[in-house]
Design goal:
- The protein is α+β, with helices and mostly antiparallel strands.
- It folds into four domains: 82-105 and 326-398, conserved putative lor/sdh protein from methanococcus maripaludis s2 fold, CATH 2.40.420.20; 108-118 and 243-320, Efflux pump adaptor protein, beta barrel domain (Elongation Factor Tu (Ef-tu), domain 3, Beta Barrel), CATH 2.40.30; 120-241, RNA polymerase II/Efflux pump adaptor protein, barrel-sandwich hybrid domain (OB fold (Dihydrolipoamide Acetyltransferase, E2P), Beta Barrel), CATH 2.40.50.100; 411-579, no CATH class.
- Strands 4, 6, 21, 22, 23, 24 and 25 form a seven-stranded antiparallel sheet that branches.
- It is elongated, with a radius of gyration of 39 Å.
- It starts with a helix and ends with a strand.
Length: 580
Amino acid sequence: MKKYILYVGILLAGLLMGWLLFGESASKEDQHDHSGEVAESQLWTCSMHPQIMQPEAGDCPICGMDLIPAESGADGLAADQFKMTKNAMALANVQTAMVGAGEAGENKLKLSGKIKENEEANAVQASYFEGRVEKLGVSFTGETVKKGQLLATIYAPALVAAQQELITAASLKATQPSLYKAVRNKLRLWKLSEGQIDQIETSGKVRENFPIYATVAGTVSEKLVQEGDYVKQGQPLFKIADLNSVWAVFDAYENQIPSLKVGQTVNITAKAYPNKEFEAKISFIDPRLNTSTRTVMVRATLQNKDATFKPGMFVEGKIDILGKQDDEVIVIPESAVLWTGKRSLVYIKESSDEPIFQLREVTLGILSNGSYTVLSGLENGEEIVVNGAFTVDAAAQLMGKKSMMNQSGGKTTTGHEGHSGSMGQESATELKIAWSATLEAEFKKVIAAYLEMKDALVASDAALASAAAKKSLAPLKKLGKDKGLDASAKEYLSSLEKQYLTISETEDLKKQRAELVTLSDHMITIGANLKEGSAPIYIQHCPMANSDKGAYWLSREKDIKNPYYGDSMLRCGSVVDSIK
């Protein structure tokens, strides 16, 4: 018995020694392997530039700050990254493109304009004495006249009396030379030539009708009198334009001004001559901004001796963009940009193989030909969303990631920067609307009322906008009572109902348009998650609205009709996306 007890003791001692020798080292090895796996998957980012993602610690390549560990979700993505399914991307027609660099010298600014008369070469032919127009030598506007051509004859009672004074003074010029000179000078002031005055003095006869001769050559641009009219001294009879040179007058928006200077070459094409290009120089840039259209007038002078250009012709001018003529600039399409207050945002596709996206703020330069130059925020070779950016942003909101409406991520806000209000404390990931046929039918009523209200604001009809907003209240209340919606979705719809109610209860156009800013954001967010509709709804944007912070709206028509300004700036804006 003692022998067995001894054997058991030896066995236990051996097991204890083995664990002490090998168990601890194995544990350390496992720990080392595990930490190696963590380190291998750990990404490092910059607190100031979150777009920087590197596989190991170090310095930020932009600002030089120490990189910090990037937060990762359960799916292995960084905190601000999210993933969409390829099927969802296909249904939403999300398209991406690689950011490429182009030569700045190849980028041209396009301006639209008209041909106008050169005001510096225009003349007004006036009557130098009071009288009645007896006969006109010019029959119609547009008639060409030569210098010295007879334009009209006028009966002038005062001139008849002055002629009689001359004849009398001529007989007394030996005894009263000063009187004689004063009478002749009086006729000279009425633009009578020395020959005409001598003829009156020599013949001794008074002439009743006096001719008016053209002092310049050109084209009659305006005929201001008819035969039989009484005219006063100095009254204009005709406007004569010298069309040997004309002005090409263009409108340039505020953000285009830095690319323009006097003396710059403009390549001009006219619709009448689409295959021919004319060269001119910018001769004047208006120092004043037109506050209604937010544009400045840019003028170039064109030689027109062969009468190629007619006043009123539409023309297009192309101007080389000033700035980085020798450097490469990054150019992205306008459809890629989401505007939120003063920020410009794009969505980066982080992986060429996987639909992983992340929001990125960029600094933009000039808009030309539907594309922006990028001053900072993007690098050559990065892939961005160029079509369907609103759909991608809606997905970001639903996943609680950073979005154009929610700069910090996690919590959902009710609009762009500068907007007030909150959707409460629910996470954006909780906003899920299961679109049944009934729910879609009710929300489409809301969309129809919204579009009617938008059209009323375009027409600046506050009463009609109020009436259209009331049509949304009943379907929104019905949607809010649906048992299939969670609390977050109901609160979202409740916020929409309050906004429509505010518009319906006022006929103050300014207040209605202010409410439309956030309301449109909500409509875009919900609309982007609807199933495919019968026709696309276009998402349009005006950078001048909302106190120059920018604002969006929805429209069935692709043509821009701005609800924030109406007739004062009807065409201000652009199509940035669409909801299918």
